[in-house]
Amino acid sequence: MLGAARMGLAGAGARPVALALPRLVWIAIALALTIPLLATSLPPLVDLPNHLARIHVLAGLATDPVLARMFEANWSLIPNLAMDLLLVPLVQWLPLYDAGRLFVAAAILVPVFGCVALHRAWWGGQDAWPWISALMAYNALLQIGLLNYVLDIGVALLGAAWTIREVRSGPLAWLLAALWGVACLLSHLVAFGLLVMVAGAGVLVRDRSSPSRLLGQVPLFAAMAGVPAALHLLFGPEGSGVGGLDLAEMIRQTFAHGLPTYLKTRVKWLVSPFASPVAWLALPTGLLFLAIIGLALLRRRLAVAPAAILAGGTLALAFFLLPAWTDNNGLVFQRLGVPLALVAVAGLRPSLPPRLAQATLTAGVLLLAGQGAATSWKWHDQERLLRDMRAAIAPIEPGARVLAVRDGTSPWHVEPQEGGAQRMLFGSIAYTHLPAVVLIERNAFFPMIFAAKGRQPLAVAPAYASLHQVDGHLSLTPELVEAEHYPPATEPCAYDPHQPVQCKARAWPIRYDYVLRLNAGATAMPDHPRLRHVAGEGFAQLYRVIR
């Protein structure tokens, strides 16, 4: 066990914020976290339908001629493969939606287990304190649907805990370290960096008094970091590396919009680990964390692991200096809020008097139960959306081209009447990628399918390539009249927020077979001679494009 920088030693009458938890309680926490997954077959996590559509294509590409006409496999060592590698084989045995829920369950649970394991590696014992990370399991990144990354945060913390817990040496340890590094790299480059950085900080502090022992860990880290990096250079997608990044330019971009905007966005994403599918739970959850830390600090009973200061300080520096976007990826600094919070929880050891400790434990249990119940109720609304969607898309034939649009006035935010499973973090819509269901259930083409070069092991076939738009938002229904007159794009295009009409929607009467209208009724549907309503009522309606 490592030493600690303490704000005061825990004396008589004080103990860790909660007692050691029996294993039965671990199981209860895991059940409480996964109960909402029983409320719906497709959790309303923004990117999830699109991910599952890709799994459906990859699993059926070799046997389905319709899918083969629309897509091509494009496998390489992409740092975004965890879901593809795990679910493509699994869906041969399980229904796709069930396999997807299992993956979401792993993304919910593994970061919590990683936080607990890292706390034990730094402190020993079986304190209940790190289990408070369960209240961060439904964080903003999970709600967005960055499932590979969220899962790999937990895998990275578990790998760091394994490295720190005892001195590792010998060929078997080096092999395991290399495999752990490869596993993290296959999920996300940032999570791979998290593994190496947290493990390195822990070993550096643990062995700081023994240079020879510290030197003996070099082969372990050479295997953990060097083997995955070499594999990525040799077998990764062309042009996907990080070479040529201009750090000064990235920092300039960070402050490009002025100090007020900078502070607003950093604070918003600093509290993103406490975000919940049920917005009103975020405040009491955050207040509970602050109360425990504050009370322990006031009583001079807060201990901090030195390695956590080193690792957390590095993460915090990156969080406050990195931009929101790079040339080929988004959500850069935003990704760091969750691992920063988990490392902080793992590195702290607050102590409180027994009654106060029991009170905070009770408050945490009540919040966890409330989150599970309220999220289940809210997610159950997703089944209504799916019923409306399935009724609308039933006439679509395999191979058809479907343009999805959305009634409303804002491309990113929900309308006042929208709620339930339609609303997500910061008032954004949760069903941006729900139209990918047309690919899963009707083998029809959805223009926003995740098939970007160097980011997914899937490519759009040439016959459909000009329809493909990488990411973005759903086109608004009122834009159809304007989009009709824009010339079509001739090649795949990236989302451009400055374009009044997104390229996927241009010249839609000659490029698409159907228009799928979501949030129907919020605005008037254009009375267009080329559109004929064929199916659906309520949330989703389908229109045939007449040629």
Automatic annotation (TrEMBL):
This is Transmembrane protein. It comes from the Bacteria. The chain crosses the membrane at residues 24-46, 102-123, 135-160, 172-205, 214-235, 278-298, 305-325. The keyword Transmembrane helix applies. Keywords: Membrane, Transmembrane, Transmembrane helix. It comes from Roseicella aerolata. The keyword Iron does not apply. Coiled coil: none annotated.
